[in-house]
Queue: 3 jobs
Job 1
Amino acid sequence: MRWGKVGVEALLVGSLVCGCTGGLDPTQLPREAMIRGIVSFRGAWPPVDSLRDLRVVAFQQYPPKDVLGEVLGGRAIFSERLPFYVEQTPYELTVEQVPVMFRYLIVAQQYGPDLFRHWRVVGVYSSRDTQPDSIWVEPGGVYPNVDIVVDFDHLPPQPFE
Amino acid sequence: MVRTLKWAIAIGFLLSQGLAQPRAVLQGQVVEAGTRQPLSGATVRLEGTVLGAVTARSGAFRITGIPPGEYVVSVSMVGYQRLQQVVRLGAGDTLRLVVALEPKPVGFGEVVVTAAKRAQTLQEAPVSIAVLEPQMLQERSFTRLDEALRTLPGVVISRDQVSIRGSSGFAFGVGSRTLLLVDGIPLLSGDGGELKYDALPLLSIGRVEVLKGAASALYGTAALGGVINILTDEPPEEARYRFRLYGGVYERPRFSEWDVGQRGLWGLDVGYAQRFGSVGVIFNGATVRDESFRSAGDSYRWQLFGKVRWTLSPKAAVTAVGHYADDDRGNWIYWASLRQATRPGNPDSSQRVRSRKAAYAMHWQQSWTTRLTSLLRIGMYWTDFANRWAEEGSNTLPQSSAYSLSAEWQWNGQLQRQFLWTAGIQGVGNFVESVLYGSRRQLMGAVYGQLELGTLQPVGVTVGARVDWERTEGAPAQPPEVSPRLGITYASWFGVQFRATLGRAFRAPTVAERFAAVRAAGFVVRANPELRPERGWTAEIGAMDTLWLPFRTWRLPLFADIALFQSDFYDFVEPRFQSRQEEVVVQFTNLTRARIQGLELTFRTWFGPATAWSPMGIFHVNGGVTFLEPRDRRRNDWLRYRSRRLSTISWVLSLPWGELQMEYRYQSRVERVDEELKNLGLISNADARVPIHVVDIRATVEFARWLGVPLALTVNLRNALDYYYTEVPGNLASPRQLILQLSGDW
């Protein structure tokens, strides 16, 4: 009986402990913005040995010098890696430094082993076919339907040095 | 001269074997005084020889091949008073001995080997030592040693880096200020000087001793903040089979932003050990699959361990140890942001990392006379890691392979009854082939000596010093490092055991810190061959005692240890982040002059009714608190990545069917993070830090207690509060985990 009481007390303490929560809380950060869309792929995908990475990248300035330098300098953000050999895929960009103007939104492909230099643009967010479109992002804003078309047979102009 | 020496060694060896005489046998049982319960795992040794045994589950032991003579039999076990008894054995005798050990609060009578490179009781050691027992490692479903080290007072783990009493901050795992040893042989990687906690299976560990404070006087480089000495298990007399099968799940986060789906982990450990006459063997294997609670954090690991101990004669024994570990994991380095804390932010996160480690060691233990012994340790430690793309290999990705070879010949002697000496020579060579660091060689040599006078009579004095030379190809020559040490113990007439120690320590920069030149994980790392060794002094005064406090109808034993310490460090090596043109450059530099002052209190007590399964009382409480003042003297600011308050406390309730345990760990909020890391925006929300409150709960049903079946079922609830915190920048620690474990030992 005494052991049962001790066990029940232990369980009560355990339950009390488990009921507590705390620590880091991402919801207490300033409200971030979200850019969402679909990346559609056309043309012949490049061979696997030149598909190191594929991401949506949003640059604050145009033309940018490179991908990683701009990201590390806080002037660009990128999405998670996109899947290869698919017809289309959704993406999501979380923008924490708001408000901000993105003047150049692209899909970038890492084609070689050098993380800093071996990148090329394979798709550009553009509603007018020729010129990149800009997006003004405000705190808490959600920007859906920012779709990008990648045509591997007809790559856009390359801005990187 | 060489020939004469060879003859002398050969004659000495033959004399020491005493081959012509018929041998005696000492056998018997070790039981607990009072309850007469057999004690499994007690160590029985014949002093002045290499002969000994570890008791089987029945408490039985058997030592054969003993030359006739008079011996001191020493019987010890954690939690019991060490017992010594003189026995006389004639030729061909078989003597049966039943030894009853008195239960004692852990601490007193406990035998440690790290403080003086010889077996001594905890009271004889002039430094602070904490001990981790294997039972604790196996019951808690730990998969790596660092998970267990976190539970020790004054010890903080920051990813792969261990900080003893604030000695280390966070340097991406490179350049450990704590020396890791396995049976006395260094186990730091040859390139980065890193601790690889997954190098050997936990089932192989017999005990872990953690020495706190400067220890270069005996151990040389890296023993700046302390020493972790893993003592591998010893083969028992009878066959012993063990297994541990566990599996569990991570709690899905409360915040949908962090949710990456249901993830879990599982693992299996198996082990076999036995002695066959003069040869004892241990084989262990382990595998762990961890899906991780975050993207790109998963891992799959397997490990093998083997040990063979051959007692050549009563005076000589040779031990060979080998272990291998293979780990394939995602390349998680830091988060994308606090908002996306379970998604990687390092741009190379789509790579995978394969890490392999292998270690081989040989020990030759020789007792030349009853007062002169030697121990030759030779070890090789190979580490290799390579990043790769998930799709195919590439030889330009981060990769490093290193061999660390070490050899040490240690001699222990006794001139008179209370006059002990230790001396030795040691050499270490690190050979590195790496995309990151190039082809490098680092050579180190050392001589050391130590005298212990009048231990516990009532004053004991230890004096010693070590001289180390270090040369690294491509780096400027450094002057020899001289590391002296003075230790004093005093057994007072009123029972309190006092100690005081002053010691110097140093750490030679590793190949990685001097020569890293790479673009990885978003950083551009630059070499700095001019890096100088870190140096420091640690002073400590301490006292320990067991008090018997009246409480209701019981007298509670309270073991308490208090330590007051100060460490002064010069030329601390730390990574420095700088923005140059379009790049963020990292370079290891001699950046900081530091002083850490502190107070540490550790305690253990038992209370409640004494039972057969818990003779000291059914409630067991132990813990410790550490107060630190870690100052950067150059900037007149707090040292980076240090907490000022640390504490752990564990409650165990022993029941007829098993045990309930609750453990609480607290670390105050880290005082300061790397400003450059934060300001350059290299890691998003690098400043996200909170105090750490972690509660672990365990319930174990021991079927052996009521069914006689050697199985145990354990439920572990780790981080029961589901408290979210970081230990290093940009790394969310594990949320709540529920793990079920079935283990067997027979």
Note: DSSP finds seven helices and 44 strands in chain B.
Job 2
Amino acid sequence: MTKRSTPGLLDTSIAWQAAKDAVGKLAPRKLVRNPVMFTTGVVAVLVTAIFFRDFATGRDGLAFTGQIAVWLWFTVLFANFAEAVAEGRGKAQADALRRTRSDTTAKLLLHSDDTKDDPWEPRSAQDLRPDDVVLVEAGDTIPADGEVIEGIASVNESAITGESAPVIRESGGDRSAVTGGTVVLSDWLKVRVTAAPGSSFLDRMIALVEGAERQKTPNELALSILLSGLTLILLIAVVTIWPLAGYSGTTLSVTVLVALLVTLIPTTIGGLLSAIGIAGMDRLIRFNVLATSGRAVEAAGDVDTLLLDKTGTITYGNRLATAFIPVPGRSERDVAEAALLASLSDETPEGRSIVALARGSYGLTDGIEATSTNVIPFSAQTRISGVEFAGRSIRKGAVDAALAFAGQTLETTSPAFREAVQSIARTGGTPLAVVGDKQVVGVIHLKDVVKPGIKARFAALREMGIRTVMVTGDNPVTAAAIASEAGVDDYIAEATPQDKLAYIKAEQAKGRLIAMCGDGTNDAPALAQADVGVAMQTGTQAAREAGNMVDLDSDPTKLIEITEIGKQLLMTRGSLTTFSIANDVAKYFAIIPALFVTTYPELGVLNVMGLASPDSAILSAVIFNALIIIALIPLALKGIGYRPASADVLLRRNLLVYGLGGLVVPFIGIKIVDLAVSALGLA
Amino acid sequence: MTAVGWLQIALVLGAVLLAAWPLGNYMARIFSSERVSPVEGALFSAAGVDPRSEQTWLVYVMSMLAFNAVGFLVLYGLMRLQGSLPLNPQGFGAVAPDLAFNTAISFVTNTNWQSYGGETTMSHLVQMAGLTVQNFVSAATGIALAVAVTRAFSRSASKSIGNFWVDLTRATLYVLIPLAVVVALAYAVMGVPQTLAGRIDVTTLEGAKQAIALGPVASQEAIKQLGTNGGGFFNANAAHPFENPSAWSNALSIWSMLLIPAAMTFTFGRMIGDRRQGYALLAVMAAFVIAGTAIVYASETAGNPLLVAAGVDASAGNMEGKDIRFGQALTALYVVTTTGLSCGAVNAMHASLTPIGGLVPLFMMQLGEILPGGVGSGLYGMIVMALLAVFVAGLMVGRTPEYLGKKIEAREMKLAMLALLILPFFILGFTAAAAMLPVALASLANAGPHGLTEILYAYSSAAGNNGSAFAGLNANTPWFNTTLALAMLFGRFAYVVPVMAIAGSMVAKPKTTASAGTFPTDGLLFVSLLAAVILILGGLQYFPALALGPIVEHVLMNAGKTF
């Protein structure tokens, strides 16, 4: 898997652009999308107006009002900056993508016959319409998304995937989709265009990484409602202080009430909320996964059942030799030797694995002269391979075929041999017989080898409450054996696409959320039905449209990472919300005594931080409130630290760090700012 | 504080737990039952209700509002016409319009704020056919609503949440009436009067003539506590020796007001099929009650340094406004439960508590009357807080927040925030307005922070549907009667409508299966989290107001400053 290059968190060029964008985002039209920051902006205008009024009338406390105004503006700017940085990181990628799209000239076929020599005329890619058929030859850039209707070619898709190794595209089957902007390296293709200009895969990808189509995701929306509600409640609390203070004989200035309001409303999470969302999408893109919507990323965090294809995800995908079992009277080494000789000419992955095992575990060398041998290669018809040399005749292959070659049947073999064959089959493996000179030498145990570490991974997922379900075309016996070896929770054996669909529907009816990946057209219904459907980039157009994510690396294992990224996104949001709200406690202790200390000096006992003066206390709280946004930008972009664990453990840890931390940090932070403020004589 | 005092507190709370467990299970059974008893059947067919047809949240809430509107009109009419109606041995005239409005709202909303003195204003007919009836049905309304909300979480992808008429009838018939009969008899045994006589005229030891008011006290007392109503027969409420003659009746009072709200948590756990969920909510409620009691108990036994300096015997702590027959421990428990409960009966004058001792009941009300809150209303209020806690912290486990298998999304959040806005809006809004208006300030008995506390307490009590008074504030003025009535009205119904809308949207959602990745809402961790959310949210709203009221009063008291 190739990862896209990761710009530094605060890459200078991005930061500079973001600083400029932050000012642009002050436009009320943009600010109003974020109620918390909009409120902050409104009161910043208010305090600025008060500053100019006081300036004109020459009132006292000008420096204090001025500083509060400045820091209120900074609060808004810092929040805008956070969003701009998050967007900036995507924009850099979008620009790179956009360059690949520019001015391709297509060879539009006037009518389509069987050969590639049909007449064509040049046509700008921008003018292609769905159902046009174009010819793409070696060296050409594919002008638009489409379906290969004829031909076979190797295509460099690195513009999209970042992977430089070419992939094969051919008509029919599951590898017929091509993407505009990719380059044909050899041979030719006839492609039927499927996407109108501006709505191609590349266009969607650019829009996604740029965040141009960004809408609030469902959870983000719910959270901003909570934050708006809190803002309203705190507005009531702060506005009513004025008459209550008046009753008590204190006349409070608008400036200090504004300061209290802004420090209390959840500016920290309010300022970072959209940055967190953009960064979550961005993390997914860095993993070479494109989600068609932010909603899908959130859904990934909620998934509690993963449907994983056995081949390529859980196992290496090929059966590999794992043991040589001799019949009585022969040694393991004899079997290994015979198997090695018989497999030298077998270029199938199974054959190569036999050679590798014999050489690796038994230190055998080939030991024969290639010239003097008569090689019998493996074929699907004979199902055996072997070698004839120096009068010896060695074969290995499917048990019945090899025995037939040796003129035997299963009944005529030794009980030990039969036992070995049966036990291998029982555990889901494949036995191969090795015969030499019409004698049975032994058995090779071929099996689907489970990837190392996958079992631990599934255990971690289980701890997170995520079930793994293996989908395989194997028979139930084999499936059960591999399922137990890999440690999956369930399996679907002899699975057809219909089985997958039915399984997903049944699980969803039980209230579960399912993620799966697939590439074939017949996977499309299941991909659409799943809550998170990840289509492989190498898959068909139908599959890519049915899913809500596309994996550019076509790596089905990534389903696990996708889930983790979704969870991390939600956790970051929750942690910063908790942090933001917990912060308020300290701010009250800073500001409330400062507000009333003139009327009730005794309330000084609430000044637990021992802040220098009322003005300094209020100013310090406002400054801290602004600076904490900047301080948390890296966390918002990177996401909070995450390792798989049960909800209980995650909650305990995050509550401790962000809940308790959120209570304590501002007490220390405000005190430090206060020391600086009073040392500098700012208030 | 003494060990004996704590033992008394523990015994009462233990007795509540012992009785609440079977009662909760019993309630779960009757509200889930498909069977219609003959008595119910007769009532339903007389009223034209089909007990088998269930209602959507909207129909449910409209039925509830219609029922309460009629209840309000009847009660208002009774008070306005009491002069020409029977059962009026003391010959009281019509109740003034603003007072009748206030009182009718007060009893319909289960608040029982009393701007009037019972024995000097209301005829027996009003007390029995008006106020006591509302004591039953306003409590039954609360239970019905809580049961409906519970159903929203126990069902998966459904439309209906029960039938209001059935729930109301069952709550009255099978829960409130039987319990009230038993408790009323117990009160009568303990010496609480139960008679239709108006008063007796006695000659005192000094030879003076005195009229001692009597009436059907025991029966009203029972439902007043069981239904967390709190409206006393007498003006002095449960501090009056006829309402609360002994330490035993005092313990019975606390027990009976805690009984149903505590039992509702068991009902909840049982109906949703996960008892631990109910225990968690009960644990949060209990934690606040015990902590609050400890603070009041400690603060009251420590006494008032100013009085000590003035030469008052401090050995019993601050005894101003308290009755010696109840003692400090059970007075503290009473103070905290009656305010944590939205009951509002008082056995001591809350205005005479020490500043910190007075802050606790005030804050208990401001926390939303969910600790454990009124019958029913406490449970659904607590569920709203649980939704909020789960939403804020639930994201931290990396999943869309869900409570009891139901996802919390934008719609529920919008409705929850709407409900949560009601209390601060009316409490702080009206307090702020009153603090500026001379017409309101004229009602204060005290200057300085204590006066502010009086106002704050009145609106907190009204909006929270508690009904207890801080004393010292003359609330029987057009300004207070009207604004307090509005606070009560919105505090009850403007809160309930969004909560029921949440129930409507929850019941429609499919219930997801719990797994190791599900946010756990039944352990100690969640209990602490929920408690912290309640405390921080409450503190954020009311800390400035409290700082100017009881908190500053406390520091001034320690500094020796008075007003």
Note: Chain B touches chain A through 68 residues (CB under 8 Å).
Job 3
Amino acid sequence: MGPVLAGVLQLLALTAALALVYVPLGTYMARVYTSDRHLRVEKWIYKGIGADPDTRMRWPAYLRAVLGFSLAGVLFLYLLQRLQGVLPGSLGFSSIEPAQAFNTAVSFVTNTNWQSYAGEQAMGPLVQTGGLAVQNFVSAAVGIAVAMALVRGLARTRTGDLGNFWADLVRGTVRVLLPLAFVAALVLVACGVLQNFAGIHEVGQFLGAPQQWNGGAVASQEAIKELGTNGGGYFNANSAHPFENPTPFSNLFEIFLILVIPFALTRTFGVMVGSVRQGWAILATMAAIWVGFVALMMWTEFAHHEGALRIAGASLEGKELRFGVGASSIFAVSTTLTSTGAVDSFHSSYTGFGGGITLLSMMLGEIAPGGTGSGLYGMLILAVIAVFIAGLMVGRTPEYLGKKIGAREIKLAALYILVTPALVLVFTALSMALPTPPHSMLNPGEHGFSEVLYAFTSAANNNGSAFAGLDANTDWYNTTTALAMLLGRFLPMVFVLALAGSLAGQQPVPVTAGTLRTDKPLFAGLLLGAILIIVGLTYFPALALGPLAEGLAS
Amino acid sequence: MTARNENRESEMSTPTPTRAPHSDLPTGHRPDESRVGAGHFDAGQLLAALPQAVRKLDPRVMVRSPVMFVVWVGSLLTTVFACTDPGDWFGWAISAWLWLTVVFANLAEAVAEGRGKAQAETLRRAKTDTVARRLTNGREEQVPGTALGIGDLVVCEAGDVIPGDGDVVEGVASVDESAITGESAPVIRESGGDRSAVTGGTRVLSDRVVVRITTRPGETFIDRMIGLVEGAARQKTPNEIALNILLAALTLVFLLACATLPPFAAWAGTRLTMTVLVALLVCLIPTTIGALLSAIGIAGMDRLVQRNVLAMSGRAVEAAGDVSTLLLDKTGTITLGNRQAAAFVPVRGTTEAEVADAAQLSSLADETPEGRSVVVLAKGGYGLRERHQGEIVGAEWVAFTAQTRMSGVDVDGRSIRKGAAGSVVAWVRERGGEVAEDAEDAVRTISESGGTPLLVAVEDERGARVLGVIHLKDVVKDGMRERFAELRRMGIRTVMITGDNPRTAKAIADEAGVDDFLAEATPEDKMALIQREQAGGKLVAMTGDGTNDAPALAQADVGVAMNTGTSAAKEAGNMVDLDSNPTKLIEIVEIGKQLLITRGALTTFSIANDVAKYFAIIPALFAAVYPGLGRLNIMALSSPDSAILSAVVFNALIIVALVPLSLRGVRYRPMSADRMLRRNLAIYGLGGLVAPFVGIKIIDLLISLIPGIG
């Protein structure tokens, strides 16, 4: 079987598996987020944190809860790292420096998991499992909670009530993420992923130096790393490390975990707004982008470098031989189209176009299918923009799901789509213009530029993957990427929740033949076109000077 | 029209209608196929608007459109830089075309406003300074029209111009309202009832009326009209505001993309000049729609004005596009204003032909539409040649009057009468005749079926007797069924409002094909219906003319008051139809939709245009340092300078090219939202992608022909 065929078959198998769980998982999540009952364990948690899960929150209250909870998370993680040296379970690693500790705390709370450290050389099990893995769960749950608030805003009428953040947070963790992560961890262990508390072992001499390997609760962290679209690896090599991702099957399974919740959330959305077809349309747009980008990636990685170079394995540089070009392409696109950022290969080593695809994937704003929750709300915001332009073309004041898109709604949606381009472009420009930051680049010319562009694209879009090559552990990059991550995560949430509040208060407009149907292939296509054009136009000059220049040179 | 009007009409024949039924044709069925559209436009208008466009370069005016303000600032910047390097033809050329871009945008707005100005001039002529004859304690005194206050009584006689808006409180007069309606046929204004409102600036043609002034000078209807058509009172509409926000956001995005480019370019090893950056920015920001946005709004109002509809706010025009329920009065909208003879029913012992003959003879002296319809039916259905009063010698004609409610003729010893059942029965009985039982049966049957029976009777040597019955019925206007089907496809529900009983209403509703009807409607019923629809989130449009319509007109999202109506109705509605043609409501909805479609189409076009501009400019900027990027020059433009200039020139010219479209509006035909979206996306989305590739290439070819360039 040729490598191309193998790649295509893996893609088909993955699609089939995702299709299989789409309806049950999506419907289950809709039940979770609409149920009136609390599990006993949830009641304990509510008592423990002193929250009333039955308070109805308007959008400012919901937002305050989101921000308050996340701020507490940042502070806790920061202190945990700063105190690592004096706490047990550190494996002898010292405390983390302030800039890096701040960067890492922000990175995990914002679901970014940008890592300017090497896990196995800096973090003991206490920080890894007790701090980082916990944020892997709750930051994902926060994302879903905000998405649910927006969906409620679309589904509900004449109310300010967007649900209760604490209930959404706890349910998402207890009823969705924990059980799924538990099963996933078992599967990963069965594949050979480590799960122990063995510490560091000396395993003899290779290449003239002592070789060590770390034990740790890797499988459990790996499961939620992918499932919660977090991406922060236990080891520096992330999912390219054999202890995190040992076999082609575990590789495929990890991709499945990355994609399963974001895709299924479109079903949850459809069920909650009372029309699963609306969910299908959003799903179709996401899936089209995902399949299209995977196909492009495979094409550029397989076809690039004619003849001798390909035979010599040129396009395998930076990729694991046990996965091959096809599976690595699927992983790279899936991890950048979601806000995961886990990697099983080095994006820096991809062809110019391949690197460009990973960049563009993130620039789309993590929406196809995007991060847990953030993918859905990002896509719904773009749907609002697309509806606004297209809705005018059918001769009515634009409306989405019966809610009018007026000045206030379009203002919030516009602010949302302004945030990440502003962060990416401004920070990249500053890094290029200031005297010191360019020293972090490994490469000159267009590839060096791509390294910086990639770093801020990844941070502002809460992806967390790195292009490799850039030394990001400097005060400049630790601080600026942390800012990009913070603003890139929470500013959009402010606008999403404000929009949800504004939509929830509306009286819906009944559907007639004069209504723009947002559950039809035509609309899915229109949304796709709008996304590609708007994002493409925003970043075209930057992309041209990085990956396009590189890709077109050969 | 109100329930009261309905009742009045069902008394057989109405008195002479207050207006000529000049607009009985369903509107829109013009020879011109595109239904709404067509406000004419010619290039001369552009030239005439040029001075105004230049005046609008004032930054205080420019700042109202964020997109064009950015272009304005950019033009200033490039001009300053061109001055620092006067030998650089490229800098000057870019500056010149950027200024042209701004001027073209202003031109679009100026042309749109100019059309309103012409209309306002006509109105101003009507508003000459009048001398009012004010009544104070029964004494007349001459005062200037501007000195009148609310509540003053003024006398107007034949030849006088009515000095201000008011209500007739005494007398009846025919009034020439052509100054505001453009309609030359005079209308009747009388005290009391729904035809009492008079408008300042109109002229009394006959008789004498006393008018109570209801508005202050300067706030009259004609003043407001002038303000509206001139655009002086124009405020941005909600959707326009929303679109402006989106355009401002896009402008910001591109501002970011351009402002961050210099450090990127520096790393790549090239320096970008301010001129080039501004050129790139202006090409990317949505200038096409930004330039035309306000013109589209003004032109939308203007299209209504051309149809003799005055919208009191742009908001109402937009709401018209969103309407999902139309409340239509039966009479005058769905059916012809008057009932028409449909059949002759003979009593025992006579034939249909005899009835037809007698009916025709007796109706020759009846000039009401009903009377004429009898003559027409006799001719068409029974082959009776139409006779004229003059050709029958010795005939004594009895004309129809509202008092006798009969018409007829005495000739050759025969008296023939035709008229309302009660009057004719009385006439027969006076002459000792008997009314046959089957005549009474026929009258009852016709009444029950929703029609109006007229009796035909004769007195001759055999005595006075009833010959037969004329069946008058409502006639649904031509093409209404198709029109309602179209509306249904557009997602608009039609509800017929009538004072008829439910059975009659249902019969007509079925025939006309409306979705629903409200029978025996009182103003309260109407109000309740509107509120019910609105509670379900629907937008409702209606027409009305009576004082008792005013609350419903105010409640409706689009309330179109008839100009013939009372001032209360005109105050309550948000539009006034000067033709007083209720069918126009459908056209108003279409114009509202067309306005929104034009905005959406040009926005899509504007954004789609950017793709080609990138392909022109990016390789021009960077192919020197990254030769690979030269491959993006898929248009094979001749030189970097020419490529950038071509994009800027195209960007400016496309505004002028689209001015006619923005003023006329995109072609609109009723169809479902899905089909409409597919069509508009294909034209303006795909068209917007492709057009600039072609346009920029052509401009580049022309530029490269200029010696010394390219």
Note: Chain A touches chain B through 68 residues (CB under 8 Å).
